[in-house]
Prior knowledge:
Layout: E1 5-21, E2 24-38, E3 41-46, H1 60-75, H2 86-89, H3 97-114, H4 119-123, E4 129-131, E5 134-136, H5 142-155, E6 160-163, H6 170-180, E7 185-188, H7 198-201, E8 212-213, H8 221-230, E9 235-237, H9 244-253, E10 258-261, H10 263-266, H11 269-281, E11 286-288, H12 295-305, E12 328-329, E13 339-341, E14 351-352, H13 354-360, E15 361-368
Parallel strand pairs: 5-6, 6-7, 7-8, 8-9, 9-10, 10-11
Antiparallel strand pairs: 1-2, 1-15, 2-3, 4-13, 12-14
Bound molecules: 2-succinylbenzoate and magnesium ion.
The site of magnesium ion (MG) has 6 residues, from loops.
Amino acid sequence: MIIERLELRVLRLPLVRFFETSFGRVHDRTFMLVRADGGGLSGWAECVAADTPYYSAETVETAWHVTVGFLAPLVVGVAFPHPREIFPALRRVRGHHMAKAAIEMAAWDLFARQQQAPLSAVLGGVRARVAAGVSIGIQDSLDHLVDRVGEEIAAGYRRIKIKVKPGWDLAAAEAVRHRFGSVPLMVDANAAYRLADANHLAGFDAFDLLMIEQPLDEDDISDHAALQRRLATPVCLDESICSVSRGRDAIDAGACRIINIKPGRVGGHGESIRLHDLCASRGIPVWHGGMLESGIGRAHNLHLSSLPNFTLPGDVAASRRYYEPDLIDPPIDVAPDGTIEVPAGAGIGVHVVEERVERATLRRLELRAS
Ligand code: OSB
Ligand code: MG
């Protein structure tokens, strides 16, 4: 395959509802969108870097800078036998996995469309529907939180995740447990704690949680291992798993019992498959994370979630929870049984509404082989 032309855009979409994590509240999402053209077809993907360096060091601006200056020249006009060859070809550029993933994933979509196959089939997926969970942000009060959780359970979601931070943690988990009994529940701290908080975090053990996600800093693999030894609740890592080899180190160290896979964080679909396979071989269940994606990134996530070791419900929810309208038509929806269909058409299998893309665009650039 050859990417003859790459189109980059920066888009801004308002969120249906604000989303708050331990690092702050957001009301909209600014992100880079990539379109890769080749052989008369187009592949699409979005870069999950945000406009702030709070979840990860990468931002929209670093992704734009690195893509335009360093990544695009390594891929545009270059023949690749398969999209899995792209990530290794970008090795000269250190880090910047979210920027690399956006190009790589657009290439996978283009490749699958050229094969006239759904992306899931090309990735090695085995499921036509995937189990959906939701991630519920920090709310203004525990009453609001309980109301929000109730709405999502009524919509059919199979697992509830609530965001926590110091000052909004044990009482939030307790309120949800108390009101909704045995609902599958987990918490995500987005690195808001220190190992010195281990006794406090052990308080979560009283609530029979599926897992606690990323309690400590991204770099703290050995601290996570020490924390896991003190908790009955399984630790799941998100931010820390910034590459396949970091995933292997975390498993070897006993830093987690579960891993959240986000293709943007590890460098795309090829690296996600390698991480998925590694986890399967080590008996570590995985689930698919979310980054408030538009329908384009969301569709990619559904295809990847159809791989066999995604045995836990992911943060792959209906588009209407995030953007209305979304960039795609029809939107992605959840069935009353809490599953979402993996789109069956070629590539990511969703229709991108180009007028909506155009309307949300803040900046645009076209790159061709020189
Ligand atoms: O930590 O999983 C996270 C959103 C933005 C950045 C980080 C995270 C999240 C979510 C939301 O939890 C998942 C989603 O609904 O897309
Ligand atoms: Mg997380």
